[in-house]
Amino acid sequence: MKKTRDFSPRMNLLQFRVLLVRYLRQIVTNPWFIVPLVLQPVVLLIITSLVYEDGTFSEPLAHITSANSTPFLLVLSSALMGLLNSYREICKEREVTRREVFGGVDVISYLASKVAALGIVGFVQSLVISLGSLSFIDYNLSDPAYSLFFIVMAVFLTNWCVTGLGLLVSALLKKSESAILPVLVIIIMQVVCAGALIEFDEMPMEILYFFTPVMYGTSVIGNVTGIGFMRDIYGYNQYFCLAMLIIFAAVFHVLTALKLKYDYRTRD
Length: 268
What we know:
Blueprint: H1 9-29, H2 31-51, H3 64-86, H4 94-101, H5 107-133, H6 144-172, H7 180-192, H8 213-224, H9 238-263
Helix pairs in contact: 1-2, 1-5, 2-3, 2-5, 3-5, 3-6, 3-7, 3-8, 5-6, 5-9, 6-8, 6-9, 8-9
């Protein structure tokens, strides 16, 4: 079976716009999509507020558990939202996509529309998480604008990175039901290997820190909120951590694109 047309950058861009608008319309008009997306950050903020203790960042040594768990929960919440939003997106519509691709739709335009739409959703959810946390967390920021920027970016880029991982999982599987085990493994890794709740001092477990997106986001928030002395992961440079999240996200998107290219390659 052969694809029915050759592609040009202009055609690919046009397809991307059409697919993006279609996907965003599906999200906004479908209550099964929009209601969970609205409730996710609200519920996760409530859970974080139950863990947080007043005065945590003013006197972190008096609130050790809260000081370590609060940044971790904010970033983990963002990662969970990104994963839950994306892990079914490709495999659930595989047959429809196959017909569209061999009817003339470019797979890169298709993937880019998914990435862009989920990125928009993730950014809004990340803003809700980050700004909503200001209602009950006394961050004690020396430079509020500078620090808040890094908090928002840490939460969003973690979301975007794990969204890319979710899309890769979705591209690798044929049915969404098969994604349960990989999703559980990813969630457990984000909790165990983030370096905030559990610290490892020996190899190879310590190496897993550097392959865990939540670790990088947690490190940024711990750094800018002045608790860097409490965990080794808080000592990493915030620019380095944000750059690593971008690199990981790019790698996940490229691998997903290669997998889709292979799945929907031209067939005689």
